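Each record in this resource describes a single protein on a pair of labelled lines. The shape at a given residue is found from the number at the same position. The record below illustrates this layout:

***
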Amino acid sequence: MAAKTRKSSANQRFQKYYDILDAAPSFIARAGDTPHAERTRISDEIAREKKLKNDDTEQDIKLKRITLNRLFSLLVGETIVVFVLAFLQATHLFGFALEEWSFKLLTSVTIVQITVMLSVAVNYLFPKKQ
């Protein structure tokens, strides 16, 4: 009788752990599972991980393409504006005339800005493999 009481109290102490194991998600291997079922689960997880990695790479490529297209649009627009200003400066059309030093400064700064922005875009959007 004493042995039965000890066994019963031991079962009660560990019952909460048995309940947790029974409620465990299906990906945790249980004692009665076959090894083949676990291999299938591992291969499913590997396939899922690869799919997530591919989706991440695809999304990264889309974001890089969008960013680069917007940057090029901005730089093309800026180049057109500077070209129009240079044309107006050369022809004095509509009475447009900047002082020579301010016009040189404007064109120099614009060219430097375009160069730096392209270099930053290339370095950060397409980093060198380590």
Notes: The two ends are 71 Å apart (CA to CA). Residues 16 and 33 are 22 Å apart (CA to CA).
